[in-house]
Amino acid sequence: MRPTFLGFEASKTALYATQKALDITGNNLANISSEGYTRQRVDQVSMGYYCYGTKYNINARTHLAGMGTNVLGISQTRDKLLDNAFREQYSEVGDYSQRNKMLTDIESVIQELDIGTDGNGYGLRYAIEEMYTSLQDLSVNASSITDANVVVSAFSNFATTMRQMSTALEEKCEQYRQELEIDVQTVNSILEKLTVLNRDIKRAIVAGGYTEEYGPNELLDERNLLLDELSAFGEVGVKYNADGTADVSLAGRVVVKDEVCEKLDFSRNTDGTVSVRWHNDGSNAGLGLGIITASTEIINGRGNGVISTNESSVMGFRYYKDRLDELASRIADVCNNTIPSEVDENGNIVSYVKFFGAQMTNENGETEVFTDMYISSDNIRLMDNIKDDATNILTNDGVTKDNKYILELISNLSTSKIAFTNGEATFEDYITGYLTNVGNDITYYNTRSESAQTFSEELLNTRESVTGVSENEETVNMLTYNRAYQAAARMMTVMDELLDVLINQMGV
User: Fold this and answer.
1) Contact at 8 Å (CB) between 266 and 184?
2) Count of CB atoms within 10 A of residue 118's CB?
3) Cα–Cα distance measured from residue 122 to residue 326, given in angstroms and rounded to the nearest whole number
4) 282-288, long-range: CB < 8 A, 24+ apart
5) Cβ(274)–Cβ(266) under 8 Å?
6) Do residues 135 and 410 touch, judged by C-beta distance below 8 A?
7) Burial class for 40, CB neighbours closer than 10 Å (0-12, 13-18, 19+)
8) Can you spell out the DSSP letters for 348-415?
9) Which residues contact 404 (CB under 8 A, 6 or more apart)?
10) Taking Cα atoms as reference points, which of 273, 277, 274 lies closest to residue 264?
11) What's the pTM value of the predicted model, to 2 decimals?
12) Residue 201 has what DSSP assignment?
């Protein structure tokens, strides 16, 4: 025979379960805009009672049936496979977007800028064009001091342009060195927070009677949000443990285990490169695709001209600085070895007019300009004797009998092929190739970035359809649970009426 009040117990559990379901529905709606919040749900099962039937108790399997419902816990609607897929794709977004951003900044330094409708502009090509245009005017009247002053001005502007571009490249590079240092600190901060969350989650499971499946949801949300953020910096892997902790790896190296984490060290090397290493053993921190790797490779990138283990073979800041230095050196060499300044009695050239030199600072802090030292984009200067007196570019005491060497210099600057590291080319072709390289890289990484961004957004939307709160769905749930609560309450009333009949209306 069933217990008299068994029906009340079933209705009571139904009231409790539906009330809790309404609480969770309200909590979902309250957190519909909370960053990182995962939709929660109440997991219910029918409460059962099991015993072994015997020939003396053949109805034991039925008289205790209908004991109500049991709430197993509050679970999250989260798919770990979608989490892993999104984080893997997001590391690509971080990598390609960072490379595209850095190369775009390089292009902004070396690009040709148009500053007028007449075709004038600013940049390497324009500066060189101004040099041979001024020389063409001088070639018409090779003894004109006025035209000689224009030539000196054009050559001085070229040297200034080179120095400005070199300085701008270094400033951009330094900006990204500082950003990389901050990014390393950010990664270390995330790793520390993950260890704290591992500790808190583990303690909450023990103290709150949670299970591996039904954990402290708000702490789990906070950890998942940090893991998403970390995936932009490197390739993240996660292994979930039964005690609620998560082992986190970067490019296969376990960096968070239980309450212990590794740290990254950022350092500036004496050759101007940067390094990101693991603090524990000093090894290079290869984090795979992500912001850290992208930044390090572009900052240290020297292309095929790598000369140290700290550098990378990516065409980054050092590559474009080398190309700028090579251009400055070749133009200085051409200009310094074309127009004679002294000829012997047999017509042999004894020396040439030296337009450019390398400015150096001596031990007394004074600057001097030398023509016998390597001229680069950051030290190229117009020679003082040319700058102070333009007649020094004219031969024969200010009167040049012909314009042969001026025309030769014009040809060298405009049409002659010059020997560069990667082959012969005119200065025009060299600059075009210089600009094309960075343009092609930007196009490539921009395409990859957009593709990765699109795919990551698709994965994020798919994940949001599982983990996100839907206002319409929660409203339907609220109405459903409300009706269920009313039905359970009505069941209590019916049971009360039944007992009234049993107690007060049955005869003795």
Assistant:
1) yes
2) 7
3) 20
4) 285/250, 286/251, 287/233, 287/234, 287/235, 287/250, 287/251, 288/91, 288/234, 288/235, 288/250, 288/251
5) yes
6) yes
7) buried
8) -EEEE---EEEEEE-TTS-EEEESSS---TTTEEE-HHHHH-GGGGSSTTT--S--HHHHHHHHHHHT
9) none
10) 277
11) 0.86
12) H
Q: What are the pLDDT digits (tens) for 70-120?
A: 888 898 999 999 999 999 999 999 999 999 999 999 988 888 655 544 555
Q: How far is CA 276 from CA 93, 182, 247, 268, in A?
A: 20, 12, 22, 9
171: amino acid identity, one letter: E
Count the neighbouring beta carbons within 10 Å of the beta carbon of residue 194: 23
What's the pLDDT tens digit per position in 141-159? Answer: 877 888 889 999 999 999 9
- Both tokens assigned to 249: 């790896």
Amino acid type, 392: N
How far apart CA 364 and CA 386 sit, in angstroms, is 25
- Per-residue confidence (pLDDT) for residue 400, from 0 to 100: 46
Residue carrying the six token digits 């290869």: 286
Please count the residues of the chain.
Answer: 508
329: Cα separation from own chain's centroid: 35
Cβ count within 10 A of residue 297: 19
Six-digit token pair at 239? 């292994």
How many angstroms separate the CA atoms of 202 and 354, rounded? 75
Reduced to 3 states, what is the DSSP secondary structure of residue 492?
A: helix
Strand (E) or helix (H) holding 70: strand 69-76
SS3 116: coil
DSSP code string of 399-467: --S--HHHHHHHHHHHT--EEETTEEE-HHHHHHHHHHHHHHHHHHHHHHHHHHHHHHHHHHHHHHHHH
What's the DSSP call for residue 117? T
Residue with tokens 């030292």: 373
> How far apart (Å, rounded) are the C-alpha atoms in residues 506 and 233?
77
